[in-house]
Amino acid sequence: MITTYEFLATWMRARFADSDRGASLVEYALLVALIAVVCIIAITALGKNASTAFSSTASSVN
After folding, report:
1. What's the whole-model pTM score?
2. For the chain, percent helix, then strand, then coil, each to nearest 5?
């Protein structure tokens, strides 16, 4: 069974230890968000161009 001292020592290490896990997680989240924004912008721009191309092709067929 864990003693009070062991519990307190473990809690203090977990609470105040220098860890980079949170920083790495934030960096990855920002990277994924940036990639998502770039993909959305590219799809929007290419979608307008594709719509224009299909419209002109459809009008020339008729």
Report:
1. 0.50
2. 85, 0, 15
Compute the distance between CA of residue 40 and CA of residue 8 in angstroms, rounded to an integer. Answer: 48
Q: Which residues contact 54 (CB under 8 A, 6 or more apart)?
A: none
Beta carbons within 8 Å of 2's beta carbon, 6+ residues apart: 10
Calculate the CA dihedral of residues 36, 39, 44, 46 and round it to 10 degrees.
180
DSSP single-letter state for residue 17? S
Percent of the chain exceeding pLDDT 70 equals 81
- For residue 45, name the pLDDT band (cuts at 50, 70, 90): confident
